[in-house]
Amino acid sequence: MDIGNAxxxxxxxxxxxxxxxxxxxxxxxxxxxxxxNEEISFFEELKxxxxxxxxITPPELEFESRGSxxxxxxxxxxxxxxxxxxxxxxxxxxxxxxxxxxASAIFQVSLRQPGSGKAPVLGLTFxxxxxxxxxxxxxxxxxxxxxxxxxxxxxDFKLDILEPFISGIEDVYYADPLDVNSTPLPSHDSYPxxxxxxxxxxxxxxxxIFFGLxxxxxxxxxxxxxxxxxxxxxxxxxxxxxxSMVTKFKGDLQKWLMSFRSSLKISSxxxxxxxxxxxxxxxxxxxxxxxSGTVTxxxxxxxxxxxxKIVLDGSDIDIDIDLPWWADLLLVILFPIGIVVYGALDYxxxxxxxxxxxxxxxxxxxxxxxxxxxxxxxxxxxxxxxxEVYTDTIELDDNSLSIKIQVLIQPxxxxxxxxxxxxxxxxxxxxxxxxxxxxxxxxxxxxxKLGLIKVPGYHVYGGKYIRSNPDNTTGNNLLERxxx
Length: 484
Fold this sequence. Notes:
Helices cover 22% and strands 39% of the residues. By secondary structure, it is of the alpha+beta class. The longest helix is centred in the C-terminal third of the chain and has 23 residues.
């Protein structure tokens, strides 16, 4: 994916904005029933007031581009029933008639500065209305929106999504903030940020928030669709940034290798992101034993739904030590009678590769845990609306890091497309829904109990099992279809 010179892009789907606006609508009754007062004159001395009550239906959203920079605008299409009443000489009539109406409110998607030193947040700014149905006009509906709680509640919305990602990558490009001799970290409001549309297969289905490093001039344009239907937010970390992350950990790997012996020297060590894995190649020398060797192989990425960390498989890593002839002879003579020679055993060719794979794997797991935990979504906040944030998938795609995040606000209804059964534990471990959303079993059960996910044909039994309808037995009735 071409994201220009941006380091990270955060794609937010139209569905996320739709769910947020629906959440605001459902949690505020004064958005569902609003009124507009008009004064009319029959003669100079005879005046009457017309009160129009509007019952507004849930809004539907769509994206629109504006200007040469293709800045995103949200059209909030709404409608409902208008019920006029007339007041004259202290008397108010019943509803005169009911009439359907519809209109589109225009909101600019913009960046707002929450405070000095903070990353900008995403917000909505009311620009006006259009597409107003007769007998109403733009001026009347504009006042209806502007003078009621609609604009205030929606403009109070904020999506604080950049701060946690900037916090996660700043130590990749800048010195350790715990080092007293290091250069101070740049302020989070100094990172350049740009907003663009993400073009989908039908129209425009997402907004991309691009950001680079302080001092950069962002050069980004329209980016092809990459937010899939099975998530609301997708984070794309470019190959260069991921390579910088991996390179940052090279010192830790060198320290581990040198911890075996003080005479061990690392003549070279390279970590390269390629083929959607981390390739390792290094040369090792031991000046005391007159031994040399290599560290080669790949660390492969693995991730499970619901976890904010990556597990690296180091089983392909091989440490090959060429021992001098006398060390090989000692191993042949002494090992059969149970005598261990210090140094020889530690560097034996049949022992070091196994030990090395396990220890390097453990060390890299810890490093990548820190990486994934820094790119977290715990800092995500949305205008007071209850939400659930769930990490669906973290994977390498075209040597870049791709993080799919589900943001559950409104209930979704999907059936099961796949169920993964663990034979050793004797239970279902993961479920995949038709959109591609993935869940650990316990997480899917929790969301089903909260009413955020409805799975037609299935229900929760006993608080910890998923069963197909209408079976309530304790036996696992999913095995026949999904068991492996």
